[in-house]
Design a protein that fits this description.
Elements lengths: L1 E2 L5 E2 L5 H14 L17 H9 L7 H8 L3 H7 L1 H8 L8 E4 L8 E5 L5 E5 L6 E4 H18 L4 H23 L3 H6 L2 E2 H8 L3 E3 L10 H15 E4 L2 E4 L6 E3 H4 L2 H19 L4 H7 L3 E8 L10 E7 L6 E8 L6 H4 L7 H12 L8 E5 L8 E7 L5 E3 L6 H22 L2 H8 L4 H29 L10
Antiparallel strand pairs: 1-2, 3-6, 4-5, 4-17, 5-7, 8-17, 9-10, 11-12, 12-13, 13-14, 14-16, 15-16
Helix pairs in contact: 1-17, 3-4, 4-6, 6-7, 6-16, 6-18, 7-16, 7-17, 7-18
Length: 474
């Protein structure tokens, strides 16, 4: 992209041959075999210090829950260690081809959810760290997660390698396919969840209408009401969110009297400002709902301690609910190594990256900025529906064959996301048709899994020494 003398933005459109040559030039500059390289830098930061640095901006009483979840297993540690791996990836060879990165592409950050057309789709589902960056960073994080998960499940070495190679091969073959496709065909490509369920079955935990009638509005309504009844109860004739401390704490349990009213009013104003970021039709729909209750929520592993709220809104009556999740968006863990985001609001960064990478996104996806929140600090948030259907892979219960299949699906999905935002022809030319790249990423994954294990042990030692407080079982 360039700017003409009259100020007009000019977008370059290289030919397919030129884009192919770009990928081959990248291959000569950074041979695919070099993607295997990982050696901890001599001045590598203490991983515990990196985690503690992140904790400084989080809700202090919730931070022990984050550590408690991370000490559960090497795979759980890996899920929470995106900042550590970002620093490590910054020391590895780069092809020089940029895409919109997810920034935290591991097996548990893919899943099933409902499209606006009320069909189940399989896609990436976490974009907190999204930022333009090297496509191989996402793929390396995904591949290493497959190896660490396979090790955690006790698979034989050959089956561990199979899981990684299937993941990388799924990405490579998909990118080769996308390189040959028309632009619109790439944009509309998606992996239907029916295929995922057919191949994985019981290894997926699906919270969605059953019986093959996912397109049925009646089934959809029944599922939403079932979720609604689990999360709410009646208090003096008013619908309120059920408490499940410390994971879900209603606003009435966080404050009382005038302090509670001020907190509610402040969050109500925040929600109102978020409306402005929605499309007009979706804004009109949201305005038919009234805010009824709010609760603080603990989410994920790596995100624990960041501020997240659940908002309960009711429409025509108490049988017409809408749950929104407002989640704090901090700077991406990639920014110290790739430069600051081009967006002033990190919520907008997350939403923009999600819309670019996902084939289908939530209709209430938007962002907001809080000038002076309940803690007096300025913060960015993004919002979406809470658990609109939803399904996640049962990673710890997967068989070797199931994990290989699942890894291949994740690889395909990541390639599709990268093909939408980056030069798919150049990436495909870099990857090639052989297995050189696949084997290189396997070697990288093996080296990084060893590093992850060392870092995991360092966290366990920090807990034993009292340097870190971990609250387990939450």
């Amino acid at each position: 992209m360039a700017v003409a003398s009259n100020g007009t933005v000019v977008v370059a459109h290289p030919t397919g041959s030129e884009r192919n040559a770009l990928g081959r030039a990248a291959r000569r500059r950074v041979p695919r075999s070099q993607q295997a390289l990982f050696e901890p830098a001599p001045d590598r930061a203490d991983p515990i210090e990196l985690l503690q640095r992140q904790s400084q901006t989080r809700i202090s009483e919730l931070v022990p829950i984050r550590y408690g979840r991370m000490v559960a297993s090497p795979f759980n540690f890996y899920r929470g260690a995106a900042a550590i791996m970002a620093a490590d990836l910054a020391t590895t060879p780069r092809s020089g081809i940029t895409v919109q990165c997810g920034g935290d592409a591991h097996l548990s950050n893919f899943g099933v959810f409902a499209s606006p057309e009320r069909r189940l789709v399989f896609d990436i589902n976490d974009f907190d760290e999204t930022l333009p960056g090297p496509w191989e960073w996402d793929l390396k994080r995904l591949a290493a997660s497959a190896l660490i998960a396979a090790q955690g499940n006790g698979f034989p070495v050959a089956q561990q390698e199979r899981a990684v190679l299937a993941t990388v091969r799924g990405y490579r073959k998909a990118m080769l396919g996308f390189a040959a496709m028309k632009n619109l065909d790439v944009w509309y490509a998606r992996l239907d969840a029916e295929e995922v369920l057919a191949q994985l079955g019981s290894q997926m935990d699906i919270k969605a209408p059953k019986g093959g009638d996912e397109e049925s509005s009646a089934a959809d309504s029944r599922e939403r009401m079932a979720e609604f009844s689990k999360l709410t109860h009646q208090v003096e004739g008013h619908t309120r969110i059920l408490a499940h401390p410390p994971l879900l704490v209603p606003i009435d349990d966080l404050a009382s009297g005038s302090e509670r009213d001020e907190m509610f009013d402040g969050l109500h104003q925040i929600l109102s400002s978020y409306r402005a970021t929605l499309q007009n039709d979706r804004r009109a729909l949201l305005e038919q709902f009234q805010l009824t209750d709010l609760a603080r929520k603990v989410v994920g592993v790596g995100s624990v301690g960041t501020r997240a709220w659940v908002a309960l809104l009711l429409g025509a009556d108490c049988q017409d609910p809408l749950f929104l999740q407002l989640k704090e968006a901090q700077a991406s863990v990639l920014e110290p190594f790739l430069g600051p985001s081009g967006f002033a609001n990190h919520g907008e960064r997350v939403v923009t990256g999600q819309l670019l990478m996902q084939a289908s996104s939530d209709i209430f996806l938007g962002w907001l900025h809080v000038q002076s929140g309940i803690d007096g600090q300025q913060r960015d948030f993004y919002a979406r529906q809470l658990n609109d259907w939803k399904g996640a892979a049962e990673i710890a219960q997967m068989t070797p064959k199931g994990m290989a299949r699942y890894g291949a699906m994740c690889g395909w999905t990541l390639a599709r996301a990268h093909a939408r935002s980056g030069d798919r022809i150049a990436i495909a030319a870099y990857l090639g048709h052989g297995r050189v790249f696949d084997r290189a990423i396997l070697a990288f994954s093996e080296a990084y899994a060893e590093q992850n294990q060392r870092d995991f042990q360092a966290l366990l030692e920090a807990v034993r020494d009292g340097r870190i407080t971990a609250q387990t079982g939450v």
